Amino acid sequence: MAVPQDVHVRICNQEIVKFDLEVKALIQDIRDCSGPLSALTELNTKVKEKFQQLRHRIQELEQSAREQDKESEKQLLLQAVENHKKQMLRKTTKESLAHTSSAITESLMGISRMMSQQVQQSEEAMQTLVNSSRTILNANEEFKSMSGTIQLGRKLITKYKRRELTDKLLIFLALALFLATVLYIVKKRLFPFL
């Protein structure tokens, strides 16, 4: 049994209003969505599906309007179709805004990930610098202690050089005294008359 034309028009109008409300609710959910990108993408897909259903119902209503026998009812229904199309056009703009919003959110999440990686690399570089500074400080302390040891060695060498000079002078004087004594003894023994 075929559905009467006016009943079909009423059903189409009711379904259009229902889809319109569902689209509004989904757009509000997109605005309120602070969850992950997958949730935003899922809501965006649902909005697109509802728009497809809404377009289909508006086309059915337009077809029913063209099939009306009375010109006044035909014009009234065509006017309603035009109103629905205008509303859908405004909602399509909202849909594109929602899509742009999700793209911006995805871009911001990517930037956030890049910034997180940069911060982590900076922390690693900072840790490397701290370790290098610690190594340099340790090497500096070793050089200071080695410098002290070298200074002490230099002082000892200078002292031993002076000692060596003094020892050589004493040995020379002792040798001279010994030779003088030997000569004196030899002179007295060999030449007692002198």
UniProtKB/TrEMBL annotation:
Endoplasmic reticulum recorded as keyword: yes
Pfam families in alphabetical order: Sec20 (PF03908)
Domain Sec20 C-terminal: 100-190
Keyword Endoplasmic reticulum set for record: yes
One term of GO molecular function: SNAP receptor activity
InterPro entries in the cross-refs: Sec20 (IPR005606), Sec20_C (IPR056173)
Coiled coil: 37-87
A GO cellular component entry from the record: SNARE complex
Membrane topology reported for the UniProt record: Single-pass type IV membrane protein
The entry's keywords: Coiled coil, Endoplasmic reticulum, ER-Golgi transport, Membrane, Transmembrane, Transmembrane helix, Transport
Membrane-spanning residues: 169-186
Principal localisation: endoplasmic reticulum
Subcellular compartments: Endoplasmic reticulum membrane
Family, as annotated: Belongs to the SEC20 family.
This protein's name: BCL2/adenovirus E1B interacting protein 1
